[in-house]
Amino acid sequence: MTAGRKPFDRNAAFRGDLDDELPETVDRAAIERMRTVARIFDDFVRVPGTEFRVGIDPVLGALPVVGDVISAGLSLYIVLEAARLGVSYTTLLRMIANVTVDVAGGSLPYVGGVIDAVWKSNKRNLELVIEDLVTDPLRDEFGGAGFDDDDVVEIEVE
């Protein structure tokens, strides 16, 4: 973290409070699609009497094998969308690790539903994507400008 920079607020990323800080080139519709998947799977309903929220991921986990496959597939959608948006390879690897923990933990008998409810890999992955896009080191290194189209050289190979 550089001097003078506030720590990254991951909850603000999930709520959409940091959308104004995203580079103009980021596909905002893709961010909203990813946020929708994360909310439905990890944060859909508040547990009455608490501030804890759960999504449909633990419910799908109750269906042996099929539920875990569906959950993993939709979780990987967020990873693929992140790759399309151009997040770093390190972030993509962290996202894949989150999905792996969610699927492996969720497939355990008896405790899998609890792990699905607590781990919230989709929410974590959305927060990683926003953090990567907002705190791009190239943007910091070059005065917050990043690279313009004028800075990129295209080479055609025949």
What is the topological layout?
Layout: H1 10-15, H2 28-42, E1 45-46, E2 53-54, H3 57-61, H4 66-85, H5 89-106, H6 112-119, H7 121-134, H8 137-141
Antiparallel strand pairs: 1-2
Distance between the termini: 43 Å
Question: Could you spell the SSE succession in H and E letters?
Answer: HHEEHHHHHH
Tell how many strands the DSSP assignment holds: 2
- Helix vs. strand class: mainly alpha
What descriptive keywords fit this protein?
2 strands, 8 helices, 158 residues, globular, mainly alpha
Characterise the protein shown here.
58% of the residues lie in helices and 3% in strands. The chain contains eight helices and two strands, in the order ααββαααααα. The N and C termini lie far apart (43 Å). It has 158 residues and is mainly α. α2 (28-42) runs antiparallel to α4 (66-85), α4 packs antiparallel against α5 (89-106) and α5 packs antiparallel against α6. The protein is globular, with a radius of gyration of 18 Å. It has helices at 10-15, 28-42, 57-61, 66-85, 89-106, 112-119, 121-134, 137-141, and strands at residues 45-46, 53-54. The protein has a two-stranded antiparallel sheet.
Summarize the structure.
By secondary structure, this protein is mainly alpha-helical.
